[in-house]
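Sample entry (340 residues):
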Amino acid sequence: MQDNLLDSLISWGQHLTFAYPFLLILLLFIPLLFYWQFINRYKQAASYKVSTVQFIRPVYSWKLRFRRVPFILRCLTMTTLIIALARPQLKFTQELTSGEGIDIVLCFDISGSMTSQDFKPDRLEAAKEIATDFVNSRNGDRIGVVIFSSQSFTLCPITTDHNAVLNQINEIQNGYLIEDGTAIGSGLATSVDRLKDSKTKTKIIILMTDGVDFGGIIPPDIAEKLAKLYGIKVYCIGIGSNQVLDSDPSGKSKGQTVKLDYNENLLKEISSETGGQYFSAMDKSELSKCYETINQLEKSKIETTTYNHFSELFLPFVLLGIICLVIEFLLRLTILKKFP
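Predicted structure, serialized as tokens:
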């Protein structure tokens, strides 16, 4: 319960603002009044001269103990009225989004070859890192994630919750799908299925792969026709350098190289037939440029309008100040009245 109260107070303080904050400088006079009262505390007391004070016993009455109350009430009155003059307000910000975003599916090849280390730290991790930057730059868009090897799987349906998308991208690992392979057709078809019912005018798939299509039950040409049928543009990115360092199962280098092996013509055809573009990325820098180009080509028509709503809080401070002033006035006229 205490934590909830603390959180509420912090939230309240974050939204508190003042229409005339410069008036709060007047509060500096309050400590000066206390200082003035302190240095003059003996001058205000009545006095008379006697030859000795041995026979006088100290007298402590409740009036003596509470003699400073009117002064404290006066300071409270001044404090609350100064705050009221500064017009405290609670500020609430509301953002209204207009226009239309783009529905995007990121389709990742997670086959075994994506662990090759011609990209640092490897192809898959580099692809995840660049995709993360891309997601962070697409405010207002709905984004989903599909992965494939010999079969395909929807890791995250299209959503505006980019934190959920980023969490799913971060969880992608080689071996997530048991059987290895490169079922480009299946990965593309699953991505199309995520987008086919979308009412958004612009729908795109970004398909990243480093291998030749094999495995899966849906041929790439069928998946391509499905994408074209539903008006979905496909941007294909072929990942990998011309030569990849080969290694044995223990990870120790054999000192041999193997030639990059993916069907560039197939990826070009899919992109061309669906209205997208094909990109080749031979290192992490080029992969980043591919995403930057797509980011420029596919602009979202999103406009965000910010409205600020203010709730006035000065009235409680005015009432509190009046109450303190009335109490002080009554105390000075009654039980704490001074006589010459």
